[in-house]
Please model this.
Amino acid sequence: MWPMNKPNIILWCGHQANQKALANKLHAAIGLSGIVLENPQRATSFNKITLTRIYQRIRFNKLHKTWYGLLNKYERKYPAWPDVPILNTGNINNDEVRRFSEQLKPDVILVSGTRLVKQKNLKTSVNIGIMNLHTGLSPYVKGGPNCTNWCFATGNYHLIGNSVMWIDAGIDSGNLIKTETTNLNGTETFFEVHYKVMEHAHQMYIDSLNRILKINHKVNAVDQKSFAKGKLYTNKMWDGSAKRKCLKGYKKFKKMPYHEIEKKKSNLFLVNSS
Model:
């Protein structure tokens, strides 16, 4: 039983199927009061598609196939969004997002898979706070577009994992509630690694929210800057060279004795706030 009657949980998320899966899991485990669904309008005309992008789509088909295979798996399992009030928006920073959310009197707002939330909407009235899910191990690996792939590209296999934090105006830089490396054994296919990371992230978010609701106040979160600096990756950095390193890095991951990766994990500072 929660310390509050019917906690009002609002999810601000992207429109893709992995976010739909998260929404359904949260709703089944705890219950959502509403969802803000960000679906940015993107140019789709052929003249916007460069020859470089077409080449990279063919050259690095394994990356493309893995990501869309993951989305298709979630789409089959969760074909519909939870039956709760939903606001569709092209930009999570629109005023309508704040108005919609405040009408539902949220105890906690959860963020996942949106663009960077700006200060105006970070000031949305909420009882406990606004949380953020990062499918990467902060502060060691921050940004995007996919931190698991950056771990392969850099050979930092021990940094494959996820983070839950209180959101701030930076990129995956808020005070940490929980960080964990994803449980792998080294035998996984490229797809299986990504699926395990995503499933792990969803469960971490549910567990962290459960903990916060039970104590009915902010946990003693940890300032990321207090123990490591880490690396911030950006979409612009995810070029052909980075993609080649990622695929080569995965092949090295498969050949490396997994106990060596586990040994490196033991030297990490991980957060489990209470």
